[in-house]
């Protein structure tokens, strides 16, 4: 990376330091609130949208929506709730683990920012820059819950800086592409040892990698718009370290089993995303949007931490499956200045019952969204959206076998939901 790119990333890390939102919002650990405009209609028709440049996250061809130099700044405040009940667990020696049988304080409210800039280079070609957080996961159960040998804290954060070109080929075809620089960080923490002889092991690792996106937008006849966008897989080779903390007696006992501070590494592929969108003007004021998004979660086989010491690898199989999200939204031009939106979505989880864990207690989601945009003048507008996310109740059931031999067993029930408030400003110059 160049010096200027590094400085931009450092600034973005400060702005997005809390952007690893709880998985209570999006399936897996994808974050989908990159635009208050799109959120208001539950992403309905987003890859075909002609409303503003924020739809370029899903389809870079949509930077052609900028007729002048344009800045779009969006932020989503995520308010998740996750109640964990009926918790029971044993350690590797089959000793029952003490602690509360409930945990209702493992997720926090968080803020997810997005930024877009578009500059027309000609009447047909647009240069675009965007900053997003495509993936994020955050959870902190604390050190005292019964499942602490499986997880105490989990954090994943991916910040992407994109540079795009979009070109209007003719009156009804536009195409676009972007290159992306991704900076990702991973935090994995849990208890190690046995009941009565426990320490905390904390892994922190990061990497910089690269991806790309491609897109095309069509308007085969006036009022009918179709869009297709593709975001590539991103391969990370994480490097960092593991540090163990606790009383000296426990640490000495762990050291005798080669459980010591060490450098670590792991290779993980973040999934590709394909977005297909359709928008149809039903009347001069009412528009229908439909979206199908396929996320290639199957590329993520799991976490396999390699310790640069004599410790055995630490493995957590994800067992993710490729999944679809479907949504439908309506946009209504209430007046010359006010536009209203609403939408519904079904977001299918990639997690299977067999491999669900305390780090990925994920279930299918349903969204209900409302929103609107107010145009102050031809150059400036403000957008609002509210989304309520209903999440399927799920259970974690991990046996004291296989990759859980050293973690022990864990059973727990999860009940989750989330509310998301999104605000954005769109300014043309």
Number of helical segments with 4 or more residues: 3
Q: Major sheet: size, sense and barrel closure?
A: 14 strands, antiparallel, barrel
The helix-and-strand class reads mainly beta
CATH homologous superfamily classification = Outer membrane protein transport protein (OMPP1/FadL/TodX)
Q: Give the strand order, joined by hyphens, for the main sheet.
A: 1-2-3-4-5-6-7-10-11-14-15-16-17-19
Supply the CATH class. Mainly Beta
- Return the domain count: 1
The rounded Rg comes to 23 Å
Shape: elongated
The helix fraction, in percent, is: under 10%
Write the element-wise H/E pattern from the N-terminal end onward.
HHEEEEEEEEHEEEEEEEEEEE
**What does the average pLDDT come to?**
91
Protein described:
By secondary structure, this protein is mainly β. It has helices at residues 3-15, 36-40, 248-255, and strands spanning 70-90, 110-120, 125-140, 153-168, 173-194, 197-221, 224-231, 234-245, 262-270, 273-281, 286-295, 302-307, 314-317, 323-333, 338-347, 365-375, 380-391, 394-398, 409-428. It has a 14-stranded antiparallel barrel. Strand 6 (197-221) and strand 7 form a beta hairpin. It is elongated.
